[in-house]
Prior knowledge:
Chain A contains eight helices and 20 strands. By secondary structure, chain A is α+β, with helices and mostly antiparallel strands.
Amino acid sequence: MTRSRAACMTLVLLLVMACSATAQTRHDVAFPDLPGYETLLCDFHMHSVFSDGNVWPTVRVDEAWRLGLDAIALTDHIEYQPHRADVPTNHNRPFELAVGKALEAGILFPRATEITRDTPPGHFNAIFLSDVEPLDTEDFVEAIEQANKQGAFVFWNHQSWKGEEKGRWMDVHTTLLENGWLHGMEVCNGGGYHPTAHRWCVEKGLTMLGNSDIHAPDISGRTTADEHRTLTLVFVKERTVDGLKEALQAGRTAVWFNNQMIGRAEWLEGLLAEAIEIAPVHRRGKDYVSTKVANRMDVEVQLERTGSAGPASITLPPRSTTMVRIGTKSPNEPVDLTYEATNFLVAPGEGLSVSVTVE
Amino acid sequence: MTRSRAACMTLVLLLVMACSATAQTRHDVAFPDLPGYETLLCDFHMHSVFSDGNVWPTVRVDEAWRLGLDAIALTDHIEYQPHRADVPTNHNRPFELAVGKALEAGILFPRATEITRDTPPGHFNAIFLSDVEPLDTEDFVEAIEQANKQGAFVFWNHQSWKGEEKGRWMDVHTTLLENGWLHGMEVCNGGGYHPTAHRWCVEKGLTMLGNSDIHAPDISGRTTADEHRTLTLVFVKERTVDGLKEALQAGRTAVWFNNQMIGRAEWLEGLLAEAIEIAPVHRRGKDYVSTKVANRMDVEVQLERTGSAGPASITLPPRSTTMVRIGTKSPNEPVDLTYEATNFLVAPGEGLSVSVTVE
Amino acid sequence: MTRSRAACMTLVLLLVMACSATAQTRHDVAFPDLPGYETLLCDFHMHSVFSDGNVWPTVRVDEAWRLGLDAIALTDHIEYQPHRADVPTNHNRPFELAVGKALEAGILFPRATEITRDTPPGHFNAIFLSDVEPLDTEDFVEAIEQANKQGAFVFWNHQSWKGEEKGRWMDVHTTLLENGWLHGMEVCNGGGYHPTAHRWCVEKGLTMLGNSDIHAPDISGRTTADEHRTLTLVFVKERTVDGLKEALQAGRTAVWFNNQMIGRAEWLEGLLAEAIEIAPVHRRGKDYVSTKVANRMDVEVQLERTGSAGPASITLPPRSTTMVRIGTKSPNEPVDLTYEATNFLVAPGEGLSVSVTVE
Amino acid sequence: MTRSRAACMTLVLLLVMACSATAQTRHDVAFPDLPGYETLLCDFHMHSVFSDGNVWPTVRVDEAWRLGLDAIALTDHIEYQPHRADVPTNHNRPFELAVGKALEAGILFPRATEITRDTPPGHFNAIFLSDVEPLDTEDFVEAIEQANKQGAFVFWNHQSWKGEEKGRWMDVHTTLLENGWLHGMEVCNGGGYHPTAHRWCVEKGLTMLGNSDIHAPDISGRTTADEHRTLTLVFVKERTVDGLKEALQAGRTAVWFNNQMIGRAEWLEGLLAEAIEIAPVHRRGKDYVSTKVANRMDVEVQLERTGSAGPASITLPPRSTTMVRIGTKSPNEPVDLTYEATNFLVAPGEGLSVSVTVE
């Protein structure tokens, strides 16, 4: 073997080693913790071959590790199992098959299911269950009750997926709500945004969720601002299954959907406060000041001026720094800026208001 | 809703449409047809949840479409089925579940299996079966015989995967060969190259194969020179399952492994003849000529000079054009170049010899 | 030094070698030749430090090689030279500095300039000059006349860049046209499309051009469908400077602008005829046929149905194959499809009509 | 115009806006500040058309912004000016042309030059000059003296670029050193590492530098672990030109070269201490503990075990988290790990020693 061939073999060997190392690598996703809370990246809606998904349950844990998720719930349908002829029904089995791998990877993995009766009243996920079997009942309300008896967190999925008429609010939903059996709604599911669900979450104090509802293998290699699952950020006091549950019950979430964050004002404000850094003015012209604004998160921030100073619009791309030039007659004085973060939604069509002083 | 928000919604909508269109797209993989033969990109070794893989059988067809493959064989183990408790044994089932999707996608999909007894004598794939069940026998040789009774193409997988000792040639292999029951060997399997298998293919006239043996979901979005499965190029007279079988039996294959092509000289020569295009000399200096050499394939060509003219080494990256300057005292005369294509292997450690005249 | 460090050094060395090799590589851009014509990828408008660009002239040749261009013209302004204090005026100098490198790279490189008087009447490029100096005249028309005396091909740049009013057709343009001194117009310049120029080209038989007008260094590593300069495809009888001139004079061009091709119907039809390949039907259902349609070019083809059969719209991404399912009551009969290629513009807002029969 | 065309125009418009926004974006490069020091990313060696580079001086500032650099020095040769016929000599001019843009971008931009006499004694950069002209002297030592009179920081470039013999230490170097006129050396320049320079920096207390020495346009769109210029990290007390100078004089630097960091132990330790985060053990098996180790920097950390516990080697890719499983007979006790960071060099061939306790 000539020298160059030996070198080439070495290269191949090293590359192979590099590749296998990569397989265990989990690329960081950049969202800041909030004061007093750790920020977890979560997906509470996905399927395996045990219902209508087409991957083995453990694949969901592999994906979660690779994509930087902190918590997932595997929510195979109780009622809909098109592979039943080959994979006999066993409601607790997907959890049991995957939980060991989740523990090993340090991924929070509450036992869960999707209750899929007719629409209306729609599909509901129940997570933090101890046993899925008792939910396989005749009656829909009884299934929800059973979930609650186990202390589950229950949310309504993709509310308008069959249209607003079939996704309307019915007496049965009022019953669930009044009994304290309904705790949240998917504001976003996969590629779909549900403004009515969003509005109801605001009005009724329900927890906002965004999930992938993924059925096929996830072929993305990492989570980025440009390409990511619809996910829920959960702000926990402690990184445990119980900590996750407490945060969901308390409504401490934000939904990451395409290029948008959706949630209550306090959590969206918290993200911006921790992730956006405005440098001191580095240049004072005769009639302007220049500053640099860093966005440390993996989501863009789109700002439209609502006050009187600053550019009409500012875009802060993810993980980058943007130069901002602000016209002012008093370049040695602080300048107050007031903007709407149009892609940080606190209600349908309503962006978060933000004010800062540049000095 | 303000104007800019409406525009933004439009953008999102268009992007979503763009994404779903992409899902059906199959990016071209560039290999030339050979005179009289169409070149098919093939993978004859992969698994599903029906043995120790972790995807539903149809996922393999989705992957084949996305990755530009023309033919695949799903080869779940007859003997090794770690998911048996949840997915009861049914040897023909993976094929039956996926064949409709394969037909719809125009992907050749022969019925197949992997015969997994001890090593030695090793694992063998049988493809072009009509029924897998009869191969579930007590005796190894009988299983191979059953496959051959159905007219299968049978090849020995990853010969040295447990070391050369366990991958040694035994009497039973001689028996198979003498009966005409063994037709090929995997020279490459996944990330592994088996030089002994390569040598035996050359010596015994066995068909050379390269396959992925993939068990997990394939998360690559497309097939490229830098990132591709180990695959077999098959040169067929017609794009049908029968055409595929005829070509395999006739040994018309080349193995695409990392940055290498492995095969019989005539097929490797054919690929180079069709894919490499040398432009007429565009510049004649006092003591050199310059020409451009295009490589239309998705595999690099690495050339080392064995003759007296031309640069000591030339690298022709995939799908690109390279400028080559050739020193010569007679720049108006044709120049003969003789090189070894060091990454086009005709035997272990032996590259293909190539000669061209530049004029 | 330990073994692993030596291996690592080897890796680094090989990577460094790989990188320097890449520098000479020119990635293919995929456009088909037309029957009787070779297709050249061209950019006839760009600047260097000798006017208001900020690169040395040779950089434009390096870029052309890297980006797969076949011909470029360096068109520094005669009148506008903001770097004059540091780089004294010398109209022929940019050409002289770069032509040797262009010859070496086999890139066609006609001598050229931009005549930049007021707007109106606008800016004009003159290419295929023998000497730029005589164009440095007092009078605008005289400069154009001088260019024509040298046999130049003259075209009007970015017609509406200062608005349609300043880009209006004036008597002087009629004079140029009637004297045979104006041969083409930029339909697209950089990121801008000029529909009025497009219409005038159609009406007056002027050659359509698309150019980059690049001033800064081009930081793109290769030319792709997603990221490419605005360019002109020229269909030449021979790959020489004269061949290029003859083709431009004959109007054999198409403009590649973002995701669009703009040109005369015969050339756009030619591109589609050579680049789009419809496979024989591979599946006949009860009420449909399925076929695969390959697009071998680096530009997407967007089709909207104007006839009665086929999907309402079909998108054929670049260098990829798309599955098309066509509903029909007679799946064993040929099906006629009539579509508009909405991104292949033969006039402003008017896509090319295409008809094919699938069988 | 039809609706879909209007929508398409909207899309194009938005994309164009997005692109222009991107042009002002500066992607973050991830290196931590050290306690008491801010970390600046710097390149103190580059050229423009005023010597043998081929870009206008302002291009270097545009590149610095885009690539996330905090400070650059433009060091055109005093002696070597191949473009002199077209760009007459003016030593201070490159600085003057670019400084305004640097101030606007907030990039530190000391006036600088390269003193290029014979090799030996080699090339030297002088930065923090007030006037380059006085350095254009007959005598080499006088040029260095002039630089020092202006308070410059002077370093020896690419010591062994013409071989170790021509890069040998001579009496003149001793003179410079004894006079306090030589303050640092390039340990790395472009793609080259100079181990002798490295050793001399360690022995003589010279400041270690790594610079690009770039002449062509930089076509990389961002700085990443995989693709970055050779750069110097400088640990400053304040982000000003004076702060930069103080830090360089004090030797607070680290060199980022390919996949390596080179510097004094205290600064390399500081980087690791701030960038590597070891999570509390999340899983205790019978004979192992599992933990996650995050690397927040844009450089990989390669660890080889020198102690008795932990995996033989650990690779921590940039901006990612790696799972580490540590075998131990006492999984409830803290485990001490001792490793060598083989790609964090404190001397030629000698990696940094690191010790941590996992609990």
